[in-house]
Design a protein that fits this description.
Blueprint: H1 2-14, E1 18-22, E2 25-29, E3 33-37, E4 41-45, E5 53-56, E6 65-71, H2 97-108, E7 114-120, E8 123-125, E9 128-138, E10 145-155, E11 158-162
Antiparallel strand pairs: 1-4, 2-3, 4-5, 5-6, 6-11, 7-9, 8-9, 9-10, 10-11
């Protein structure tokens, strides 16, 4: 009986997530973010996954590449959570780079994981004044320590981040 329940759950969940191969070359994400990629990537789509386009090479627990292409003021950087009491982390047009990084810290630690900012500095990104940031994340689920890198910029009142 337990095997039957597990099989039914697996079939139900498999219909929720789709994975598509991303070939090397130039891609346009959103309306104004263009990226050139090399190597084998996979685009992962899932319902209620938030505004980011998610890519992986070796599977989501191992690596994730998140693209936020043109988020407007008031948009949340994460998918809606099951707990309505959890504050949405929304973009405001006048946010400074440290406040934007704090949005992503909030998103990455919603499950109780620990975030540590290693570096944040100004830099040109996509022809705009931007900010790269490095961080460390310790996942609550399995205590695995991860390293992350993000690049962000605000252009014409919209936020662009590659995480």
């Amino acid at each position: 009986m337990n095997q039957l329940i597990a099989l039914v759950m697996l079939v139900a969940l498999s219909g929720c997530v789709s994975i598509a191969r991303v070939d090397s070359g130039t891609r346009t994400l959103g309306t104004r973010l263009e990226v050139s990629i090399e190597g084998p990537w996979n685009h992962v789509s899932a319902p209620n996954s938030g505004p980011a386009e998610t890519w992986t090479m070796d599977g989501l627990p191992i690596d994730q590449l998140l693209f936020y292409a043109g988020l407007k003021e008031g948009v949340s950087v994460h998918a809606p959570g099951p707990d309505a009491a959890v504050k949405r982390l929304e973009l405001r047009a006048a946010m400074q780079p440290d406040e934007i990084v704090a949005l992503f810290e909030g998103m990455l630690t919603r499950d109780g994981s620990r975030f540590r900012l290693i570096r944040l500095e100004p830099m040109r990104f996509g022809g705009q004044s931007g900010f790269p940031f490095d961080y460390a994340l310790t996942r609550k689920l399995d205590n695995v320590q991860l390293a992350g890198l993000g690049f962000g910029a605000i252009s014409k009142g919209e936020l662009f981040v590659i995480l």
